[in-house]
Amino acid sequence: MSKRAGFWWLLIYLASAVAVAIQRTLFSPENNFLILRTASRHLIAGQDLYAAYPAIHADFFKYSPTFALLWAPFALLPPVAGYLLWALACVSALYVGITRALPPAQATLALALSWLAVFGDLQRSQSNALCAGLMILAWVALERDWQWRAATAIAAATFVKLFPIAAVVLALFHRRRIRFATIFAAVIAIGVALPLLVTPWATLVAQYKSWYAIETHDAAALARYGTGGADLYAGLMGQFRVWWGVEWPHWPTQLAGLLVLLSPLVFQRRRFGSRHFRILFLSSILVFCVLFNHQAESPSYSIAMIGTAIWFAASERAHWRAFLMVASLLIVNVASTDLMPRSWYHAWYVPYLVKTVPLIPVWIAMQGELLGFIPNRDPSETAGPSEIAKADQGKVAAGQRIA
Fold first, then answer.
1. Average pLDDT of 328-336?
2. HSE (CB half, 13 Å, CA atoms) of 146?
3. Would you say 282 and 97 are in contact if contact means Cβ atoms under 8 Å apart?
4. Are 333 and 299 in contact (CB under 8 A)?
5. Distances from the Cα of 242 to the Cαs of 114, 217, 237, 356, in angstroms?
6. SS3 402
7. How far apart are CA 89 and CA 177, in angstroms?
8. Distance of CA 67 to CAs 52, 120, 127, 145, 288, Å?
9. In this structure, how many other beta carbons lie within 10 angstroms of the beta carbon of residue 344?
């Protein structure tokens, strides 16, 4: 039954990609798609990727030169086909990642709970579903000791958006960490140099300097908080500024968050051999990447919702977890749609960055479970004998690696 339901969710995700591609090219063109489509051509032509091109699109390209190159196959196609294949790439990475990381019943639930967030991300031609999918696939690859695949997945996500590099922490659960670090460094170096296939060295160096300049400017910009749309919500940093008027730099909050994220790796080493512990840590990383990202835009929250969905699907059932999951769906996803009255949306939802609020207790709960303060048994522990046997077979097939 779960596998059949999973198949239906695959069809729903694929149909969503088709619907969005048609909607956002033929009826209401998406600006971000125009940015991505144009950047690949600018890279090949040797033009500054990060300059303003108001005659073509609003805003700026803010991804890496490597991503501009990797996006070229989509840019060379007609708009509908390019958008469709891009959307299919995003949902496919996520679907494969979730279905390989979780047992069928849990995967089906996680896909169902993630769908609205992913659909919204596709409508903005964003890459968040892809980044989440690549991070999950990296977790899956490390579970099987496929270090090259894991390093490539994390590096690819990092070249799209910088924060997925946090997924390298997942390698600490497994042996041969030095080997993985060497492989990852090699893959990053190859990726950095990859645009040399289409552009000279001097031009590529200039592109990286321009990218650094625009990222540095964005890191210091505060004025866009709370303006709605795809503008900055900025996770906890946005909360501190809008709710309490805090103007300190981002890094103290981010450092504190990083220390809390990593604390289970120090105090719960005995649990490294538990697959359930490792999947909960993956969920925490996905939420962390949004909650402590000072450049987190509204669509970026889909990554946190995917992490929340995986956490809920893989957790022991409890009323309080169900409440947090429902609250996150309603406040993060549903309230961002036209179902929210526009007067409420503009009066308090956006100005007070309410989108971040439910993710705070979710992440605290995740870390509490990882630190052992809150019990959270693997649902398979309370399953029937046949379900336990299937789970055990999956663990053996995954080839668990104990640090």
1. 93
2. 13
3. no
4. no
5. 28, 20, 9, 12
6. coil
7. 30
8. 18, 22, 11, 26, 23
9. 12
Q: Round to whole Å and give the CA distance between 176 and 115.
A: 36
SS3 232: strand
Backbone angles phi, psi at 62, to 5 degrees: -130, 15
Q: How far apart are CA 167 and CA 305, in angstroms?
A: 17
Identify the pLDDT of residue 242. 84
**What residues are paired with 297 via a beta bridge?**
232
Q: Is 154 helix (H, G, I), strand (E, B) or coil?
A: helix
**How much is the pTM?**
0.89
Q: Could you write out the DSSP letters of every residue in 340-365? A: S-HHHIIIIITTTTGGGTTHHHHHHH
Bridge partners (DSSP) of residue 232 are 297
Residue 160 amino acid letter: V
Show Cβ contacts of residue 392 under 8 Å, excluding neighbours closer than 6 positions: none
Q: How far is CA 222 from the centre of its chain?
A: 23
The dihedral over CA atoms of 158, 162, 166, 172, expressed in degrees to the nearest 10, equals: 40
Contact present, 129 and 306 (Cβ < 8 Å)? yes
**Residue 220: per-residue pLDDT:** 58
CA 49 from chain centre, in angstroms, equals 24
Distance between CA atoms of residues 294 and 154, nearest Å: 20
What pLDDT shows up at residue 294? 83
Instruction: Name which of 155, 224, 151 is nearest 183 in CA terms.
Output: 151
Q: Is the pLDDT of residue 302 over 70?
A: yes
pLDDT digits (tens, 9 = 90+) for 56-72: 888 889 899 999 999 99
Mean pLDDT of the chain: 88
**Cβ partners under 8 Å of residue 218, min gap 6:** 62, 295
* Least confident residue range of 26-30, 221-225, 315-319, 362-366: 221-225
Number of residues assigned to the chain: 403
Quick check: helix, strand or coil at residue 297? strand
State how far the Cα of 389 lies from the Cα of 279, in Å rounded to an integer. 19
Give the phi and the psi of residue 274 in degrees, each rounded to 5.
-90, 120
Segment 380-390, tens digit of pLDDT: 665 544 444 45
